[in-house]
Amino acid sequence: MAGSSVSVDISQAMAVAPVSAGDWLIVAPSILTLLGGSLCLMTRKNTQAQPKIGLIFMVLLVAANIGLLARVLDKGVITMVMGNWLPPFGIAFTADALGVTLSTIASIVALCAAIYGSATIDNTGRRYGFYPFLLLLMTGVSGAFLTGDVFNLYVWFEVLLISSYGLLVLGNDRPQLDGSVKYGILNLIGTNLFLIATGLLYGMFGTLNMADLATKVAALENGASGTLATIAALYLLAFAMKAAAFPVNFWLPASYHTPNIVVSAVFAGLLTKVGVYALIRVFVLILPGSRAYMADLIALVAMGTMLSGAMGALAQGEVRRILGYLVIAGIGSMLAGVAVGSTLAISGAIFYAVHSIIVMTALYMAAGVMMLMGGSYRLRELGGLYQASPAFAAVFLVLGFAVSGLPPFSGFWPKVMLVDAALGDGRNWLAGVILLSGFLTTLAVGRIWIFAFWRGGPEGTADGTSTVRISPIGQLGSASFWLPIGILTALVVYFGLQPEWMLQVVSRGASGVVEPLGYVRSVFGGL
Amino acid sequence: METGLSILIGLFFTVSVYLMLSKELVRMLLGIAILGNAVNLLIFTAGRLTREVPPLIPEDLYTPAVQTANPLPQALVLTAIVISFSFLAFLLVLAFRAYQELGTDDANEMRVAEPADEQAPPQGY
Known about the structure:
By secondary structure, chain A is mostly helical. Helices cover 72% and strands 2% of the residues of chain A. Chain A is globular, with a radius of gyration of 23 Å. The two termini of chain A are 21 Å apart. Residues 1-8 of chain A have low confidence and may be disordered. Chain B is an all-alpha fold. Chain B is built from 3 helices and no strands. Chain B has helices at 2-20, 25-46, 71-102. In chain B, α1 (2-20) runs antiparallel to α2 and α2 runs antiparallel to α3. Chain B is elongated and about 80 Å long. The mean pLDDT of chain B is 86.
């Protein structure tokens, strides 16, 4: 226990220098979305103004994140403390390359969702608060990516969770209520496990500041590894539930296909990745010893997640549910990176998270367009979409290649890094399963493409004839559909063809958590 | 005092796990409520338990004169209580709505989102 036994020079704990103006950028993402969300709530009956306010604040959020990313890449890790109390007393917000990269990509995806939502969310959905919930969800997501305190991470998790409940039941259909009950209860239990582990960690070290914990745990050597391993196991279970890792992943395919498609898209892109982010943060930065101790277990979990996700996708006949399983398969690849734990592997996991945020959101949005064109989400009832729009078929094929990890799109590079890292670590089985899950994913996505796009019409019609059900692309002329899918597909292609910049950023992010000296220095000011 | 509270926390965890293994929603939610209280007590006990000494610092000192209760876990617990209470309230309303719409509070019979008789996916390519 810190406190009475350790002598602390309290006079040093009061910061006197004011926070420099640029460092306020760290809290800007959370504050902007909180403001925007409140403003939307206040004007929630004005359904015409809702999308405009939402879009303005999403653009501001993206701008703030890009500014923060530029500053972090320029100056290294930056820290801001609340109320001028120096850490570990004050709550620290710490932005490093890992957190800022993910928060920037998340904000771009949320902007796309706000654009897409302006076309698919009707007046009722707006009145019941789609935009406030979306903005407040981003408050939680940005806060979770940028905080430097474990308890604060828990609080941001709750902020995003309560907003996600609101989004999930928006519309009040019977399947939605069913899915929300399962999602809600499972996630609340996961959060409580997270809190148990945090309480035990506090009891052991007397601090919850991440940089302080990293130093204190490293100083402990192997003295109390049993207790630490217990805490780490609790964290693993809690974050595995959040990230939908095998075997605690069944709530995701039960709930993600029920809400409005744009809500599914945001969830598939963001929520599970926050769980993976927390896992990387806690296991690699704070508890590296326990990560090494449990590496085999994490590798098994990763292989189970990849295989159950890819095979689950093959066993589904509905586009949204196939995509739900593909989200799970992607989580397995990121866990494989955590299991190996080298800088290369963590870089691969972060790159995969970036790729997965973009591509899963884009795929769900594309599924929404398929529904509008073909009138169904079921593979048996879809067909002939290639004739209706060859361009859209090409976009879907690009996204399908990307999610399967085929070159030349964004899924290829992280897979190469993860396979390379796994082979370098002597985990040949893990590398094999990564490749196998990519192959099974290709089959699952290929089936969507062949059935929905390539064949002439739905099941029961003569092949090669288009049916009346196909609406031509012209009726979907609104830019609200094509702009977000276009932006995300462009990113997928860009990161596939020009990966150098992203490779640099993610390797900085990974080396920042594997060797946290810079992180600790930033929080404690040149320790 | 720590021993007594630890036993109480263990009891709370046992009861909550038992209730959460039930298939009826209301029992599950009761289990979650008790789980939340167990976690709060755990954080509270993981800090320092001291009786009857207010955590006040005399004017001329930087640290308290005698050992006092640690105020930080109390702040943490306060946050956690507010959050778990609001979530429980939300989930109770959600469970009630689900009961109204689905006509059951048995988790095994809630098959609207994942129907049991779902069509198999198309075979082959």
